[in-house]
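Re: beginner question about structure tokens

> Can someone show what the tokenized structure looks like for a real chain? I only ever see the sequence side.

Sure, here's an example I had lying around. Input first:
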Amino acid sequence: MPDRARPAQWRVDVGDLVFRVLSSVAPESREPAIVLVHGIGVSHRYLSRLHDELAARRTVFSIDLPGFGGLPKPRRDLDVPEMAHALGQVVAGLGVGPVVLLGHSMGCQWVVEAALQRPDLVTTVVAMGPVADDRHRTMIGQTRALAVDTLGEPPSVNVIVFTDYLRCGVPWYLTQLRHMLAYRLEERVPDLAVPLLLIRGGADPIAGLEWCRRLRRSAPTAQQVLIPRHHHVAQHSSPKAVASAILTLAS
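And the corresponding structure tokens:
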């Protein structure tokens, strides 16, 4: 891929919450912009390859949520609906009209909830590696699935993820893990007013195949794409394939 300019970035305050926005603008594109939201413990960094692939064709924003990616930790607890409400305000403030709203892992919960609260802001929800699969919807179960996934991911993924975990810190991670395990994604996607695109690495031990199929069947309008042989962080290990699915199916 040819070198591209670094995304512009800025801070957005929503009340006492601090977000970071990274932007790559494609002025020639008339398609909806794409907004990328990371999962628990991490940041935009493990979405950067996907961001760059998408930015060749569309305007793309990556958003770091409060307490992640080195941002200040909120002084209060934030469950999924509260975080999604603030995320919706950030998306509205981008001023680019309805967007494709994409989340990875726990990010799927935040973007689904944001789309339920503000369907006017969203054209399509993209859920990559959605959680929490009820086969292991416990702290121990999630830890085991993460350990299995780590063994299958490229070293470059693990370096990014675990460095971001250190920046996040144990207290904030555990606070959000509690909300992640409590949020029932399968009970929320049936109420989506916009299409849902599910993307799963074919070897993902965290978001199982049957779990993703259940979500697809539950949503009013949904499609599912598998990225063969890749694991939970398929957007890093196979960014071209993931970008192709999004650009083809999400509008």
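Each token stands for a local structural state, so reading them left to right follows the chain. The radius of gyration is 16 Å.
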